[in-house]
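Structure in, sequence out. Go:
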């Protein structure tokens, strides 16, 4: 269950609402609303180090397990989401070796 402490609660950069950061199974950060939400589609739990982890509630694992609590991703409820950063194309530099430049197998 969620602790009532606010030491891990921060603010959304888009709307300023309180959020908690979790780490998904693919090691990506995901913001969730800090309070449990029965309509949420995420199961959140604290691992052995105290870091919040999250997983999606799926057909294979639809129920909460042990110390998990149900949460709503903040992206779904944010009125002003921050714009997503897009990766810049990598600048190509140098010359690729070709056969006429002395490249050998």
């Amino acid at each position: 269950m969620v602790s009532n402490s606010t030491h891990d609660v921060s603010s959304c950069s888009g709307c300023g609402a309180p959020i908690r950061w979790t780490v998904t199974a693919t090691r990506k950060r995901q913001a969730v609303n800090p309070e449990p939400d029965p309509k949420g589609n995420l199961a959140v739990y604290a691992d052995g180090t105290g870091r919040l982890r999250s997983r999606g509630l799926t057909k294979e694992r639809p129920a909460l397990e042990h110390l998990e609590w149900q949460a709503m991703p903040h992206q779904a409820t944010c009125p002003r989401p921050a714009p997503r950063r897009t990766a810049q194309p990598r600048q190509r530099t140098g010359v690729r070796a070709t056969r006429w430049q002395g490249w050998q197998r």
